[in-house]
Design a protein that fits this description.
single chain, alpha+beta, 4-stranded mixed sheet, 7% strand
């Protein structure tokens, strides 16, 4: 990966996903024969041994897509079922969506930690240890760095894959995004970034007020000294 890596670290998040791929079958119109085995297929996708309810089966089989009569892709949260001989691109899109989900989970956890640190810095009692503006500027700088790092990572993750000219793969990616709830992750991350930005704004305002108060006291002291010297 070389120069593409920035700030390398090992994360504890893991995303397991199973892809069941059947390349061919001797039965005619094989993909459509799976409608007769929806109960078994739903159990495989949900990794359940016990029979599932009709509602659960419908939910497991909702996201399906075919490009031709000879292929089929059924996408679920924990696993996917593929039928067809040429499904490399489909597997690649599924793998990328899982990586994107993993990155979203990691970024969401990083933002939670950043928010905790920001709340802690903002909640410090103003006059407990008479903090100078410099201490507030240090906390604001640290929060700003976390905000910028998170925003850049979020932008890179959401704009990594662009499917142009292949409507089937584009529909497949939208379907996977709906099943993985990537839009909900996006909304949650954007909301936390906005909260972090609000905290940063409050801390910079507090630092500016401290600086003005300090300048006012310096002016008062200088006036007092000038009066004493005159006498």
């Amino acid at each position: 990966l070389g120069e593409a890596i920035e700030k390398p670290a090992l994360a504890g998040e893991v995303e397991d996903y199973a892809i069941f791929h059947i390349e061919a079958s001797s039965a005619p119109n094989s993909p459509f024969l799976w409608t007769a085995f929806e109960h078994e297929l739903a159990q495989i996708l949900r990794c359940e041994r016990a029979p599932l309810s009709e509602q659960e089966i419908r939910d497991a089989m909702t996201y399906r897509l075919s490009f031709s009569p000879e292929d089929l892709a059924v996408i679920d949260w924990n696993a996917a079922f593929l039928f067809g001989s040429d499904m490399e691109d489909v597997r690649a899109v599924i793998e990328f969506a899982n990586v994107e989900l993993l990155e979203m989970r990691l970024l969401d956890r990083q933002l939670d930690l950043a928010l905790d640190q920001a709340y802690e810095a903002l909640a410090k009692t103003p006059w407990s240890r008479l903090p100078l503006p410099r201490s507030l500027e240090t906390s604001s700088t640290r929060i700003a760095e976390m905000q910028v790092d998170s925003a850049i990572l979020f932008e890179r993750v959401t704009n990594t894959l662009k499917l142009l000219g292949d409507q089937y793969l584009a529909r497949l990616y939208r379907m996977i995004s709906q099943r993985f709830h990537l839009e909900d992750w996006d909304a949650s991350i954007i909301r936390k970034l906005q909260t972090l930005d609000s905290i940063y704004g409050k801390m910079t305002d507090r630092a500016a007020n401290r600086r003005m108060e300090l300048l006012e006291w310096i002016i008062v002291v200088l006036i007092a000294i000038s009066i004493v010297i005159s006498f």
